[in-house]
């Protein structure tokens, strides 16, 4: 059973080489610091993270991990669009992910 007081986040980091890194955590700032210290994911050890671009809180670990999974499947343009228009996250459940997956920005 999940802790009802725990926060679950999907987050997106901007790396020094302008790539994006997406992950899951219960504490975004702490995880960002771990990435910057070179002790996070293998990817961020070679692509230095410079900024938290986006974070979204979820009620459950499952929802946060699902959001991370679907977000990673999006194109870079779709990811940037979602980051720029975070109100898309107000669509109930994970429907926003499916709507965005169908969206092809020009």
TrEMBL record:
Q: What PROSITE patterns does the record tag this protein with?
A: GIY_YIG
Q: Which Pfam families match?
A: GIY-YIG
Q: Which family does it belong to?
A: Belongs to the UPF0213 family.
This protein is called GIY-YIG nuclease family protein
Highest rank taxon of the organism: Bacteria
Q: Which residues form the signal peptide?
A: none
Query: PANTHER family annotated for this entry?
Result: UPF0213 PROTEIN YHBQ
User: What range(s) does the GIY-YIG domain occupy?
Assistant: 6-83
